[in-house]
Amino acid sequence: MQLLIRQRGTEDYQASFAAMRAFTDARTPETPDELWLVEHPPVFTLGLGANPAHVLHADGIPVVQTDRGGEVTFHGPGQAVAYLLVDLKRNGRRLFAREFVHQIEQAVIDTLLAYNLDGERKPGAPGIYVAEGERRGAKIAALGLKVRASGCTYHGVALNVAMDLEPFSRINPCGYEGLATVDMKSLGARASLPEVQLALAAHLIERLKG
Predict the structure, then answer these.
(1) 43 and 74 in contact (C-beta within 8 Å)?
(2) CA distance 106 to 6
(3) How far does Cα 145 stand from its chain's mean position?
(4) How far apart (Å, rounded) are the C-alpha atoms in residues 91 and 18?
(5) For the residues 92-99, what does the mean pLDDT come to?
């Protein structure tokens, strides 16, 4: 799998969302797969099955309904967001959504390990959680995808690097009341957002190239 990386900088969530859908609507079997790296201003997003009641008090932060899987999450400055616009059926390839998600999660685990941080999966709860130490069980990365019948995907994964984590207290993250969230900075990693974005992109490419 070849992924063309696009650095989109800081971009309003609605603009990214509209661009992802437009890209997927227009793509053909020959369209290269792309990996978009972006940072969003504060926003709460709801997955298709999300219960709006899990937004406890938005307090001026926009709430956007999306077409990805999953529940409610928060995007904001200091978070590495990677959107994967991939044709899972390209050239007769058949990469199943479950394996695709597994490889994305593994790329996040690989990225954290590069900063001496241990991440792990939790059965039935997509995303990555802290595996060791006082913050064990806290969520550090959220994942949600849209997979169309054509096999084309968009949305992706968000890794908390160095954020204001307070807005997570205004929601039940991913639908779980009281779920703790954390970022890499709080765990002792001193890395800039651009550095982590590129590290995450490299690990995504490595995991998905097969």
Answers:
(1) yes
(2) 21
(3) 8
(4) 27
(5) 82
Alpha-carbon distance of 15 to 87, in angstroms, equals 22
Q: Residue 62 has what pLDDT?
A: 98
* Residue of 100, 104, 129, 125 whose CA lies nearest to 117: 129
Q: How far apart are CA 96 and CA 153, in angstroms?
A: 11
Which option is the CATH number for 3-208: 3.30.930.10, 3.40.50.720, 3.10.580.10, 3.30.230.10? 3.30.930.10
- Which pLDDT does position 94 carry in this prediction? 75
Do 151 and 85 contact (CB within 8 A), yes or no? no
What's the pLDDT tens digit per position in 59-94?
Answer: 999 999 999 999 999 999 999 999 999 999 987 777
Sole residue written with tokens 């479950």? 98
Tokens representing 184 are 């890499």
Q: In angstroms, rounded to a whole number, what is the distance separating the alpha carbons of residues 29 and 52?
A: 36
Query: Residue 208 pLDDT more than 80?
Result: yes
Catalytic residues: 174
